[in-house]
Amino acid sequence: MSAPRATTPGPGLGPGPGSGEPVPVHSRALDLDLGSSTQTSHRLLAYSDALLSIIATVMILPVAHTKIHPDQKLGESVQQLLLTKIAVYLMTFLIVTVAWAAHVRLFQVIELIDDVLALLNLACMMIITFLPYTFSLMASFPEVPFGIFLFSVCAVVIGLIQAVIVVYGFYHPHLLNQQIQVSENQNFYKRHILKIILRGPILCFLAAIFSFFFIPLSYILLGLVIVFPHLSRFITWCKTKILGQRNEEEEHHSLETFSFYLSEPLSKERVEAFSDGVYAIVATLLILDICEDNVPDPREVREKFHGSLLEALSEYGPNYLAYFGSFVTIGLLWFVHHSLFLYVTKATRLMGLLNILSLAFIGGLPLAYQLTSEFAEKSHNEIEAIQVSCVITFFASMFQFAIWTTALLHERETLHPFARYGGKEHAFMFAKLALYPCVSLGAFFLTCLLSEFSTEIFHLMQIVIPFAFLALRIFVRISLTLIKSVMSFSRRKVVLLEEEEACLSPTDTLS
Amino acid sequence: MSAPRATTPGPGLGPGPGSGEPVPVHSRALDLDLGSSTQTSHRLLAYSDALLSIIATVMILPVAHTKIHPDQKLGESVQQLLLTKIAVYLMTFLIVTVAWAAHVRLFQVIELIDDVLALLNLACMMIITFLPYTFSLMASFPEVPFGIFLFSVCAVVIGLIQAVIVVYGFYHPHLLNQQIQVSENQNFYKRHILKIILRGPILCFLAAIFSFFFIPLSYILLGLVIVFPHLSRFITWCKTKILGQRNEEEEHHSLETFSFYLSEPLSKERVEAFSDGVYAIVATLLILDICEDNVPDPREVREKFHGSLLEALSEYGPNYLAYFGSFVTIGLLWFVHHSLFLYVTKATRLMGLLNILSLAFIGGLPLAYQLTSEFAEKSHNEIEAIQVSCVITFFASMFQFAIWTTALLHERETLHPFARYGGKEHAFMFAKLALYPCVSLGAFFLTCLLSEFSTEIFHLMQIVIPFAFLALRIFVRISLTLIKSVMSFSRRKVVLLEEEEACLSPTDTLS
């Protein structure tokens, strides 16, 4: 959940006496000393990222905690789940990410804060954390207008608070982004950022009104809030494709006058911070379940197991295995994400969207844990549980892979030179990203074929993967050498080889 | 949960094409390009901070979720809680903070990471997240050696993994802190850091052995793990006080040769990141309770409230009030912490300890929420519930205040010049920090006197405080002006006034 920004941590201090770490004194940070109440915003943003990522993810718990009767077929109960709780989870996740994106844009414009802004932001966070509850109401009472009305009111209040923040920021221009501060048409910027921020709340306001007359329309309006930014982007993209290059140039021109802060992608640091929050909360939700469900009752131990704690605990064996397996999965998916974003220099909108979809599936992993630990080696639901886990893992890792392929499409803008197509790091990154999709897909089909051993296959997969990651670098190196030597031996495509050599050289000579 | 470090976010890149933010290229980050697999550690550390802070805090949930029968007197049940679950929570919190402190020290020595270190760190995190479970076992079966044995084994494994990380780091010296890298006696550093890291695990190893013979001794050894760093510090401090200044100079000298990385306080950034994690998870645990407990059952609404959702929801009125009240409390305590650490330039050991104690009480706030929402306006437990909430809030804010007073003792080293004794910012900071202790203490005594209106008093307090924070700056300014004018009017202590003027001038002229 870190957000290393170009500003200094404290109020623009150099290294304190006795501190050995060199703290770069950024030019903006010095402005602090002008108004003693002005502060850098980095910690406020990091805290907001943490709150938002936890709120987005935590709604998986009611899904995971839904008690399914062991005799019931999992298929039916999953359907029942899908209809209400999973819908609440996904809606919450997506709406919170929309709110998060608006928050990122807002604080790309306002770079410094003071106490009033900090308190306003906290008020905004308070309303956002209340959103999951309104969703729960909507899911439980889809035909009653009150749930959707309450949600819309919250969204409108959030929009209004953010608008107040914008107006306050432009009233105290020293808080603004420097590029906007020196620009002459501040009013234009103000209108534009207000338009972006109030777009959602206005749709929600309409939804609140319609909720009393015609509820389906309200739901459509709410859905529009989520897809609107991507939809408008897609329409612009289609337009430029149809009308040709000329328009694109025009758009490019208008972009430049707009400054990058309003139309460029979200800052990579905050994407990382939000992702870290989701991974961290998912990893730790698991131990909560373990602690609440798998501590045996002292009386039961005395009566059923004749006082032997070890015997009682051995009952929970599969749960521990499922816990460690899930933690390893989440940890390694974080590791892949971390490796990927080390080489990403800029996250485009599409990459951001794919990242959020990946995170939505990551958030589903506690459900996978609950399924594998409850049904493993028990009943006829075993295979389904393991297959659901495989599917969740597959999609979470596949969307990560999609981020990579999207980045490759515009590799000059989005990727570090090392990781671009043709280099050794490229091959290594490819292997890292491809590991989980391949393994989960393989496990899925293996469980179809060898349904007898599905649990064993699944646990074997979870245990083997960390070692696969450790050996990956060696493996990639060997296979690259093999390919090279085969090619040089056959000496058929000399020209092509030379090209590849040229591509490989920057890393080879350095490492 | 942010950790803004002096290193660049990506692998040492300048600003990407089209990105307007100036990213300072740090000299260390350029080293990355030498070994293509080497990375900056900031995101790994931020993720670790997030995991550790959540793990430390999340064990309050079993405490808060303990069902207390409404007819039962709260006094008795609180005692029962105290004996087991609160003990588990506090032990987990303190042990996890010890593990966190060791982790901070470790990665002050190792500054860059590669894939192997990242995976080793994840393995370490996995074992740490398992610790709360071993505590639950210990609390449920205090007389069975298995719980304490399991805990000790985990602690030993964590220590071993960290030792492997140290050895790996010193085997690849380019990963180390630059100061150690250029130093000639690397072996000395290696031994010293190994000693710090293995101190706890060795005590735990002894505890594991003794757990089969004499359990109380094991518990004493585990307690020693928590207090050992502070105890040794305290003993050294006493020694220097008794033996006089001469020894202090000697110690100072040895400190210098040691380099600050091994004996200096924890990095302020990671203290902030860990604190943010605790505040964020506590704030969001609340909404989880709201969503799980306060969504009415559709059938109940139909039968009991004749289909009126609003009527059913009005039943939960006090819960909403308690939720918003708790969120406001946590948000504002975070705000005070944030304001305080803006002016702290270095967190000494004692300040770190006080911060952790404050956080431990912050972690208790979900319990306060549960108490106020369950018992408010219900039964004879009302006053006790509100008083417990006041006490928790009081201690959480009082320890924050203690951080401030401790910082003032060594203000030249620990505080920003603005916030030092005598300035306007000093008075403002003092007012900010004193607000919560005063109000919660006042509410506590008011509930004793006016026990009839205790709920009203408590909610009034929670609603008034945010406005108090907004008005604080004005209030402080007015009172400072008043004091000044009274003093200049009486013209009795002209010399003293001039002194104060001199103290006030740096902020006055600037703001």
Automatic annotation (TrEMBL), chains A, B:
Similarity remark: Belongs to the TMEM175 family.
Organism per entry: Anser brachyrhynchus
Entry's Gene Ontology molecular function annotations: arachidonate binding; potassium ion leak channel activity; proton channel activity
Annotated Gene Ontology cellular component terms: endosome membrane; lysosomal membrane
The protein's name in its UniProt record: Endosomal/lysosomal proton channel TMEM175
Membrane-spanning intervals of the chain: 44-66, 86-104, 116-135, 147-171, 200-227, 320-343, 350-369, 385-409, 430-453, 459-483
InterPro entries on file: TMEM175-like
GO annotation terms (biological process): lysosomal lumen pH elevation
Disordered as annotated region, ranges: 1-21
Subcellular location: Membrane
Membrane topology: Multi-pass membrane protein
Keywords: Ion channel, Ion transport, Membrane, Potassium, Potassium channel, Potassium transport, Transmembrane, Transmembrane helix, Transport
Catalytic activity, as annotated: H(+)(in) = H(+)(out); K(+)(in) = K(+)(out)
